[in-house]
Amino acid sequence: MFKTRERLLVVYCFLTLTLAAQTETNLYRQADKKALEQWVDSVYNSLSPDEKIGQLFMPIVESKSSWKTKIEGYINNQKIGGVLFSKGSLATQAEMTNYIRSIAKTPLFVALDGEWGLSMRLNDAPRFPRNQIIGAIHDEETLKLYGKEVARQCREMGIHINFAPSIDVHSNPDNPVIGTRSFGELPSNVARQGIAFALGMEENGVMAVAKHFPGHGDTSEDSHHTLPTLSHNLNRLDSVELYPFQQFINAGLSGMMLGHLNVPALNTNGLPASLSATVGQKLLKERMGFTGLTFTDGMAMKGVSNQPDMSVKALLAGNDVILGVINQEKEFQQVKQAVEKGIITPAMLEEKVRKILTYKYILGVHNNKPIDIRSLSRSIHTPESEWVQRKIYDKAVTLIKNDSTLLPVTALDRNRIAAVAVGVSNQNRFQQWLKRYAEVTAFQVATVDSLRLLSSKLKEFETVIVSLHAVPKSELAALQQVINSAGKSVLVLFDSPYALDRLKPVVTQAGAVVVAYDNSDFAQISSAQALFGGIPFSGRLPVSAGGFAANSGIETRKCRLSYSFPEEVGISTESLAGVERIALEGIRQRAYPGCYVLVVKDGTVIYDRGFGNLEYNSTAAVDAETVYDLASITKAAATLPAIMKLYDEKKIRLQDPIGKFVPETRGSNKANITIREALFHESGLVSYIPYYNTAIDPNSFNGPLFGKRSSLYHARYAGAWGRTDYTFIPSFISDKRDETFHRPVANDLYASNKMHQALLKDIIATELRSKTYRYSCLNFMLLKEAVEQLSKTDLDSYVKENFYRKLGAVNMTFLPLNHMPVEKIAPTENDPFFRKQQLRGYVHDEGAALFGGISGNAGLFSNANDLAKLCQMWLNGGEYGGERLLSKETVTLFTGTKSSKSRRGLGFDKPDPRNNNASPTSPLAPLSVYGHTGFTGTSFWVDPDNNMIYIFLSNRVYPERTPNRLSTLNIRERIQDELYKALVSLQTSSQPCNESSKATTR
């Protein structure tokens, strides 16, 4: 017994000296050596001779009907050390893993051959792209993140080893087996990208196995079918093929797979490298210093399967684990005989088995817990996983040509844009996402013939974006014609960069060329964002193609909103789960039929979701395109930007009296109200007047308009009962539209200019009280008149010209029915008293309606996305899309100033620091927040401290304005609470553990 212990100590000393003299792997270096050695000793000493031999084998098993019998044989008879499952589903592989764990005496390795994650083998796993796309990424943190996510999914599946990355240098475009499995053609890139990915995996507890040593990238044959020859000399091998493997070893990574390759320069003498001691022992271990686990490539491959005694040769060549032999029983017996004959020495066997057990301990193979198959899919398909998929494409999309700095697209107000999708029949994800940024006219052509017919139509556009979703194999003339039809043309290739070789004439003529690598939804979403500057272009070509060298790529900067997951800004999706719960509570409590919530953090939209429907008992769901009546948000999103612009141009000052700009006020007690007082709601104006009184003919009925409920007073309106037997003053309102009655009030109701003048006169004639704070829409009605007098145009035209069109906010408008189908617009109140109809696309506010739908206090409609663009412009200090809309000084003044008399800012609302119950925001919001609410159930809040925007849109006044459950349930404020709680969680997690953290809240 003592001699055995002494011999074991000698072997361990030899291993330790070897490791010290060579490159120790990170996994081994970080292990608890004492605990490791105790476990390895215990297990090794419990193994029979057959069990020791069995540790050297890892068969491949598919999820066929006979899998259970086959695995039982491998475990019970050949005592295997691990298994590689191939093909199937998440559930079937988990079932197999649970089964082998239950019957194996010695814990087994479970391996994956997943160069692009689980989806390479499992049909229902998250789909990551092939390595060629990864090769376009030069951000090592993203590559590492990808490796970590692949490892996380592996661990959920009970997988300990992933036979990835493939770090073969793809220097031969005609290679039949490597191709898109390689990161590219430049050895330095392949090394850097493969190492970053592998480090991510190993940091998350899964062994990375580099392949196919010594390099399968420049072969013209497939080792699955024959033995390829790598004919380069030693200098070339050192500088190209071997370079990534040496860097992988130097980085301390732990797994290596030997390929079935004939390499004459390495004296393989016709043997596959996987069976050559010159390669596996002398080159890999002795010269290059590798000390981790070595695996053969699959031994059923034709490149090796005809070799006699192949498993014995593989072990003698330096491999530790034999992968996927054809006849497991036969190979086991041959190795056993070689051990008995001393061909494989006891010391060699012990060294290999102990090394295998060492890594089993390090990788936690002994800590087996059954996989919960019921929750498995949810554990694998997480928001984080989808975020990593999206991020990969964000970083990969590559701009290789950009004449005249065509991208990102700018000057949206002067740029008519067409998007032509080639190879599709319907509008696709790419075109849908382009429309998030600008007004884009979309065309789809499935054939080249259809493409020819488009050329004449495209001449009316300044910019034409041609996306190739199926590259024409011939007849590129039609494509060239389309590219030439516009002054500015962009070509987006949703295919391999090698397709550029066929497209050279088109690429030459295009103003900008983008390579997106594949036609997945992720590639389309990322490309659309990059074209408009939502994300920067940062990818580089991984291979030479179309006259462009490898590493070609033009970088751009982010200048517009991007769209991603909360994880992009360090917030977990789970931490925002309460948003959904509260939003759905509002629907259940009939606070609104539906709503939309959008959150921007650090310039990225991280929450973008609709809930419910446009109406109760409707199937029309709220979505990103849904347009809402913003009500009083109009004050801050239309009138205020106009005032800020005029202030910027020194056409208006805050101390100017309103009478300077609104002649109707001159001679009245309203003339001296200053712009500042109106913005602060400190003018002394009354809060409200019954605007309908101005329009209704008092001679058309007897008695009061409102009374106790009866057959006469039957129209419930704003909590009262009104009569409907009145008529409007004929010179003010008509049910026919003509030159006189051209201001839309509602469906079949039109106001005249006389209505406008009469209403303005009534506003000016109201009582003026002391100049304390009193919220009043009348302030902004007068400010709108000032804007229009100064700008010589209506408020709608002015803000569109100076803001909305420049922002690409095509859904932000007054009078929305002039610009979009009614189906996009959420209905508001059923008005039985005044307009006597359901309102949809017409402003809810009565005063704004009588002004013809364009007013300073209400009338603006928008979806959440376009409102967010305006908010982001403010957060950016007046800049958006690479264009300055307001000076930074003006934005700072208007967004940062607060009244000394109330919580109000200059046109914006703000938190109430003295009374949380009266505050329109979450009590967690910092005092720097500015925004506004709307009577129809809307709000937006901009937080400069946390660089965050929160938008909530609903039609809470549907079908009537009372009761206001949105307010009584505090839906908007509670959702905002969830955002700040998530921020607190983010800040806490980012602080050192010995420091306290404090959220940026008041």
Automatic annotation (TrEMBL):
Residues 896-925 are annotated as: Disordered. GO terms for molecular function: beta-N-acetylhexosaminidase activity. Residues 50-358 form the Glycoside hydrolase family 3 N-terminal domain. Residues 585-962 form the Beta-lactamase-related domain. Its EC number is 3.2.1.52. GO terms for biological process: carbohydrate metabolic process; peptidoglycan turnover. It catalyses: Hydrolysis of terminal non-reducing N-acetyl-D-hexosamine residues in N-acetyl-beta-D-hexosaminides. Gene3D superfamilies: DD-peptidase/beta-lactamase superfamily (3.40.710.10), Glycoside hydrolase, family 3, N-terminal domain (3.20.20.300). Keywords: Glycosidase, Hydrolase. It is an enzyme of class 3 (hydrolase). Pfam families: Beta-lactamase, Glyco_hydro_3. Belongs to the glycosyl hydrolase 3 family. This is beta-N-acetylhexosaminidase. The lineage of its organism: Bacteria, Pseudomonadati, Bacteroidota, Bacteroidia, Bacteroidales.
